[in-house]
Design goal:
3 copies of one chain form a homotrimer. With about 290 residues, chain A is an alpha+beta fold. Chain A contains 5 helices and 15 strands. At the A-B interface, helix 1 of A face strand 1, strand 2 and helix 2 of B.
Chain lengths: ~290, ~290, ~290
Amino acid sequence: LTAPGDAAPAPGADTVFFLSDYGRQDELVGVVHAVLRRLAPRAVVVDLTHDVPAFDVRAGAAALSRALPYLGPGVVLAVVDPGVGGDRRAVALQVPGPGPRWLVGPDNGLLVPAARAAGGVERAVGLPASDPRPGRAVQGPATFDGRDRFAPAVTAICDGADLAALGVSLGPTTLVEAAEPVNETRTLDDGRHRLRAEVTWVDRFGNVQLAAAGDVIPGAVREVSVTVRAGRGDPGPLPRVRTFSDLSPGQPGLLVDANGRLALVVREGSAAARFGLVAGAMVEAVW
Amino acid sequence: LTAPGDAAPAPGADTVFFLSDYGRQDELVGVVHAVLRRLAPRAVVVDLTHDVPAFDVRAGAAALSRALPYLGPGVVLAVVDPGVGGDRRAVALQVPGPGPRWLVGPDNGLLVPAARAAGGVERAVGLPASDPRPGRAVQGPATFDGRDRFAPAVTAICDGADLAALGVSLGPTTLVEAAEPVNETRTLDDGRHRLRAEVTWVDRFGNVQLAAAGDVIPGAVREVSVTVRAGRGDPGPLPRVRTFSDLSPGQPGLLVDANGRLALVVREGSAAARFGLVAGAMVEAVW
Amino acid sequence: LTAPGDAAPAPGADTVFFLSDYGRQDELVGVVHAVLRRLAPRAVVVDLTHDVPAFDVRAGAAALSRALPYLGPGVVLAVVDPGVGGDRRAVALQVPGPGPRWLVGPDNGLLVPAARAAGGVERAVGLPASDPRPGRAVQGPATFDGRDRFAPAVTAICDGADLAALGVSLGPTTLVEAAEPVNETRTLDDGRHRLRAEVTWVDRFGNVQLAAAGDVIPGAVREVSVTVRAGRGDPGPLPRVRTFSDLSPGQPGLLVDANGRLALVVREGSAAARFGLVAGAMVEAVW
């Protein structure tokens, strides 16, 4: 985290990037959209995803971090919030850009990785217990802060409000950080290298993203021996490839994925199903 | 329902609130969006939800009613329509605002609860058998009224058409109303009170909303004995709390939810799964 | 496919119609939206669907073709792309309109049926290996062309770029075409007619769309004997009806659906579940 900066960003924003674990089966996402539309009618809302596993702050933080480099100017609204209504803080963060300049959500580890990816927290404020727009009365429910606290704060930022008008200043170093995923590499006695890395994401296709950067394995390595912990069967030696079509259909392999991370994949198939892997599982690779 | 009013709302609208049971797995929702975009290019569409259980008019009506207080000006397009193509009427309703001034959809009980929440039906018209915009020929299919009848009517309203131009006037009292959910409270011989209430909604997290208003149980009551009918095990005595974080993780309780209704919840867990509850199930509470 | 035309469409577009098999559980769709928002801030994105079954090019092509007649002016961005990163070409196609004038995606059979429905391919270009906008460097990942190749090409078209500026000209007849679904009718020895048709789509409600046009069975035929191959039980003689409400709840029948195709349906029920049918299954009908 950087020290609090002096520079205020240009006021206002016209794009809201919205991520949550609300799902789509209910009207929760739609109601937040409606509040944004009512309070900031000129803002366009880009839904990143609303299918973060319920209450899974780390998964939400990972998705937001992956998306961040591709976002243009705007405000991030992120809600994965098992502690809603409790004493966890609600915060708005300011970051340097050139992407989104603000992130709004619960102070539970969801925002900090993305804020770091955006250059670090310049300023942070804690939002009041209800609608933070000036002059609004504190309201009743304490179970739907996305609608009642975060969305109004986002629209105030869209309208050009300075963070100082929205809440009390917080030291960026006091923000809650989630545990980093396991990601360790060491050299074995025989000169080979071993990576031990946590699964950070299983995508829709069953591709298994690891916490490790794609370049941890030198480009010249053509084959890697992979072991899974608490999974189903060991992949064994796998080819290191550039893309899916370097594999034959159904063949597993390792590649550097679209986020620059190491990923275990099966061409036109699910590596997660094949090897019994879910987010949080541990994978070892030796080369 | 109120009597038909004289006041016409300001013509036109620039927001469409869209709810359906079309799901997202097909292109149905997208095609309706495309029609709205083509016919009313300046309107913004806010999707409330499209995952109302198939054909479940009451669930759709409940979702729309819950959302309504949070919607700004605009037109509601709502389609949960097991009788499509049959003799159920297609209608457009006018309500007082300050939120949406119009609701468009089938006359099967889907719209009336939301119209009531919006202040009551001021005017109602029955839409013709196909595209209701002036001068359009009657078209063939009778299975996708969202695309062929309702969306064109919505865009005509966005463009400022008066309801009278869209169809024949209907008496608001002739509109079909769905059965109200069960919601009964009575005093027992021993002076305690018993609530018998239907489950109106199980949300994505497994929170169980009841038909009962949150204030049916006086605020001073700290513990309520809860029984479920046709569920799995009885919750027994449950704490009455303000919010999730007044419970420990995994603990069940009762609270007033974000819609002001009584809800059976489990912190960071699913009350529906824990007690075998689905929409339509019956819950009894004694205090 | 038509021969390449001379007429250039009016430059630029303000609507993007987006279809993929990315699903909604991850941030993939949201990231593509963010790229579109950043590079073409005035364009509105209409999501057709993102739940095409993973890697199922034919299902994606069918959905896009069904949607096409309802789309207004704009650009289609379609990505169902099991060959991403390989030697399949990435293409942008120009068609006559009056709907979308351009389609962008992989050259694997996904786009051609919709292009044909839009009047045939007038011009086609192959996109370079990365961001095709002039002056952009070739980038690294080869696994997320929706984000890195197709979306930038779409935004260049939105901005008024001519196809010739985006890639090398291709002969429209060289485009890959997917296998057509089975759709055969013949007259039997006894004078009756037999249709053999592939299931092209099972929608959210379980309606079973066949490859056959709705008018293959003359309007006067009131009953059709239906047999399913590799399904569960035979429907037997079914009524031919105009719409769902001509059936009683739970009753199966045949109708011409909202796309003008023959469909096997059950009123307020799932014909797919009832008869064990999925996309690709074969249905025979005799009348």
